[in-house]
Write a structure and sequence with these properties.
heterotrimer, A: alpha+beta, 3-stranded antiparallel sheet, 11% strand, B: mainly alpha, 8 helices
Chain lengths: 201, 257, 201
């Protein structure tokens, strides 16, 4: 039997598609994208509808269906975290420099190293960026189309997954920061900032 | 103690803590932000003049305590001293420079932006985190991949392969066929070891190596090499050579006897 | 936060206990026994009742609550097992050794292994011949009536079929190969690597 075999038959009813998506997502620890899910469903299936039905079914349960960037995953309900002490992974507390750098990347992305330094008022040690990249919370984005073509940093889906964010637009306090104009790029008076660029893309 | 006295003590302690903790700061902007907080006003309404004075006082205190200050703290001090002068002096309309107010506003913006980032960073860290508050499937079922490998070849591949085998020799790298060459080095070595046996005049041909004394190219090669080696030994004074007549046999004799 | 905190409050209702068991079993790496589940639940909870309710809830779903030995665990429904397997068909180019061996068999059949080696100028591994036999492109022919009675190899009908030949005699001769420019061509770089494989075709 294979997934492609299904195409020989009629597309299964939505309730059956829902079961399939449920099984596929349950089996995976990492989020799966809509495309990855669709690839494993019979032809003609509607993964989006199945996901929506599934999300409703799991509302209020001990396990939730959550969206993580482009992907979907089952995660335990946050209010039950205290029951999972044995599953808790011991993580080293992020240093203050790393926490701030991560926040700057998340809220100002795509952002160059020079911009991170400008915001923190202190140089960024390579170790900090390396550490965040090792955690797979940040990654290299596109090069900035400005002199020197500096690399930019952006947050990853792993970051969104870790902090339970459906997308970078759901970052806490994002709208307040934007409303206060704190995400604007304002060059120092009297200097032409070569890296000045759109704060949000 | 009266309140104002208590507050004075608290402020002094805070100032001391600032200096002692200088290593704990994340740069001059961090120090400025901490100092700005003591003004207990909105960062936009902050007195940059007062802030500059506090920072310069902080740097002076740190130097009095002989605390090594990183260059960027001193750069900031110099910049703030400049900013202070710009704020105190009336603007020079002829100077093509940003006004003191512009510079002060930008500093206030930087401080506000840093504080904003710190606020949201704290909010971010307070979120439910995967592996701490929220958990993924503990026993994921691995997606097995059943891989079927099929091999493909075209008729052209087969024909080319056959062509390749059949024409292999034509494309072999060029090798000198060395087996028919007896080098002078080989001959010299052989002659040296045989010198002692030539107590009397002996024919050169007798010194040809085994397998090279038949006719043909191999013999010619051996004769040439042996003759050249013999000439070499004559030059060294180890050997005598003679030939009675043209094309007659070449004879040699150990010279030491 | 800790599990013991729950005991300070009243025992949560069964539906809440069900949520808890659901989350605990979901996050656990291994099946949990009734006792292990009970240890993680607030005092006074009834894990048996919660498990029973949970099992009912998951009946007919894509994921089932199943008993594994002494323990309990979630498992994807058995009828959806095919979704957990990904079929992947990879087409690879035949290795150079195999192509050459195949060519020799085609042009010289019936041919013994020793003869193949003599023509190729290098030894032929048994693996290469086995591989070609698995592909059903060559098969054993009659034994040669010579000392040792060595087996011979011939091409199969599958081979002729695959390459669109009516018979092995239809293979172009050396002069035709030369006319086609094949004899003048050096081995193309792409085919020089015996194991050169195209990952996907």
């Amino acid at each position: 039997m294979s997934g492609t075999l299904g195409s020989l038959f009629d597309t299964p009813p939505l309730i059956e598609q829902q079961r399939m998506v449920e099984a596929i997502l349950f089996a995976s620890a990492a989020p799966l994208t809509l495309r990855e899910i669709a690839e494993r469903l019979p032809k003609g299936a509607d993964p989006e509808a199945a996901l929506a039905a599934l999300a409703t079914h799991y509302e209020g349960r001990g396990v939730h269906l959550v969206q993580v960037g482009e992907g979907w995953a089952f995660r335990t309900a946050a209010d039950l975290g205290h029951l999972m002490t044995r599953e808790q992974v011991e993580t080293r507390r992020l240093s203050r420099a790393a926490t701030e750098t991560l926040a700057i990347v998340a809220y100002h992305q795509p952002v160059t190293r020079a911009e991170i330094e400008e915001i923190r008022g202190v140089s960024v040690s390579k170790g900090t960026l390396d550490h965040l990249m090792e955690l797979e919370w940040i990654q290299l984005g596109r090069r900035r189309q400005s002199p020197g073509r500096p690399v930019t940093f952006v947050v990853t889906d792993t970051f969104l997954d870790h902090f339970g964010l459906a997308s970078a637009r759901d970052l806490p306090g994002l709208s307040e920061l934007r409303a206060a104009g704190l995400l604007d790029s304002r060059p120092t008076p009297g200097t032409a900032d070569p890296d000045a660029a759109e704060p949000d893309a | 103690m009266p309140d104002d006295q208590l507050q004075a003590i608290a402020e002094r302690r805070a100032a001391e803590a600032l200096v002692v903790d200088v290593a704990g700061f994340e740069g001059p902007l961090d120090v400025l932000l901490t100092l700005a907080r003591t003004q207990r006003v909105d960062l936009r309404q902050i007195s940059v003049l007062a802030l500059a004075e506090q920072y310069l006082g902080f740097v002076a205190a740190a130097r009095r305590l002989r605390i090594e200050l990183a260059a960027d703290y001193l750069v900031m001090a110099a910049w703030l001293a400049y900013l202070k002068s710009r704020l105190l002096l009336p603007p020079d309309p002829s100077a093509d420079e940003p006004s003191g107010e512009d510079l002060a506003a930008h500093l206030a913006f930087q401080l506000e932006r840093l504080e904003g980032i710190r606020r949201v960073a704290a909010m971010l860290m307070a979120r439910d985190q995967l592996g701490r508050d929220v958990f993924a499937r503990g026993a994921p079922e691995t997606l097995s991949t059943r891989r079927t490998v099929t091999h493909e070849a075209t008729l052209l591949d087969v024909m080319k392969a056959y062509a390749r085998i059949k024409t292999k020799e034509a494309f072999e790298p060029f090798h000198l066929r060395r087996e028919a060459v007896y080098t002078m080095e080989d001959a010299l070595e052989r002659m040296r070891s045989l010198l002692g046996t030539a107590q009397h005049w002996s024919e050169l041909a007798a010194f040809l190596p085994e397998g090279w004394d038949q006719s043909g190219g191999r013999r010619r090669a051996a004769v040439a090499a042996t003759f050249a080696a013999a000439l070499e030994l004559v030059r060294d004074g180890a050997l005598e050579l003679r030939q009675d007549r043209r094309f007659g046999p070449i004879e040699l004799k150990d010279r030491s006897t």
